[in-house]
Q: What sequence folds into this?
């Protein structure tokens, strides 16, 4: 993993790079003072591709933080030319941050900023082939209650990924898969992001109303005690919930062989997780939680599985998936 040097001062960046032997990311370059004054140049490195460095480029120029789509893309183009033509960096060394602004102030001038950010991601990816995009997600929800921020950040992150976002600065513990967000909350957030106001309806006011009495961001626990055990196990895999997992497995073992439990409710849960991930409804951290729950379940069941091959010989198949 690369070390990230976080400064806008070229001298600080260059001093840091002198001490890093591996690949580093420079966070961040911008054009606040014009071409080159906020862009570090590693001393002693000749022009040309340098696998030891990469850059996080903020869409900021002499006029300030870029707000509308054309402004964001124009700054990205200038930074791209500077990095590739003057300093010899490759397109794939660059991460462009089109900037996220709060949608929560009620300020008329900020209402379309979410749309501008999403469209800027699409255009940067299309017009500057090979580069990456990145966002600091939580700024979009600044000023809301924690529970509302949790949901708005999750919905906005999903929309940004759909637009082509490659990386995000986000607290993985404070985002939620879309399939766990109530439809009413999700729709209000989408309406806010895309500025879908109409007479008598303001999505920001609706979000404030929906979360007026919500103090916790954790989803409400669903009572599954009356569910069949196979359905409980499937849902545990989907939710990545290991609390009480062994009790459910013990109950299932009373009526099902261990291998049938794996091939039945457990694999059904992973199938749903795969579908949710493919559709963008579940982010990677939650997929990993589900995978860890599956791993724990299989490990618990393994001693109960009959061994059909006592010779110890077998065949291993390694595979991956094309994303």
A:
């Amino acid at each position: 993993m690369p070390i990230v040097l976080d400064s806008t001062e070229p001298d600080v960046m260059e001093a840091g790079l002198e001490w890093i032997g591996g690949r580093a990311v420079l966070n961040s370059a911008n054009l606040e003072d014009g071409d080159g004054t906020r862009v570090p140049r590693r001393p002693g490195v000749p022009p040309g591709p340098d696998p030891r460095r990469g850059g996080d480029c903020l869409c900021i120029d002499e006029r300030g933080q870029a707000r509308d789509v054309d402004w964001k893309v124009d700054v990205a183009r200038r930074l791209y030319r500077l990095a590739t033509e003057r300093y010899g960096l490759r397109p794939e060394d660059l991460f462009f941050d089109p900037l996220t602004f709060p949608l929560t102030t009620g300020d008329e001038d900020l209402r379309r900023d979410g749309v501008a950010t999403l469209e800027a991601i699409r255009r940067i990816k299309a017009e500057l082939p090979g580069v990456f995009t990145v966002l600091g997600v939580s700024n979009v929800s600044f000023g809301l209650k924690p529970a509302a921020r949790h949901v708005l950040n999750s919905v906005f992150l999903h929309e940004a990924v759909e637009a082509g976002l490659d990386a995000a600065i986000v607290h993985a513990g404070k985002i939620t898969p879309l399939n766990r967000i109530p439809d009413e909350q999700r729709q209000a957030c989408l309406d806010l992001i895309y500025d879908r106001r109409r007479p008598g309806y303001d999505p920001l006011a609706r979000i404030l109303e929906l979360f007026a009495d919500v103090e916790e961001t954790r989803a409400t626990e669903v009572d599954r005690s009356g569910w069949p055990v196979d359905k409980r196990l499937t849902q545990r895999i989907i939710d990545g919930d290991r609390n009480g997992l062994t009790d459910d497995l013990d109950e299932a073992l009373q009526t099902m062989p261990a291998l049938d439990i794996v091939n039945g409710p457990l694999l059904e849960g992973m199938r749903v997780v795969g579908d949710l991930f493919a559709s963008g409804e579940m982010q990677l951290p939650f997929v990993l939680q589900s995978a860890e729950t599956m791993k724990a379940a299989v490990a618990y069941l393994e001693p109960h599985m009959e061994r059909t091959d006592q010779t110890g010989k077998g065949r291993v198949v390694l595979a991956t998936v094309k994303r």
Q: What stands out?
A: Residues 42-52 have pLDDT under 50 and may be disordered. DSSP finds ten helices and eight strands in the chain.
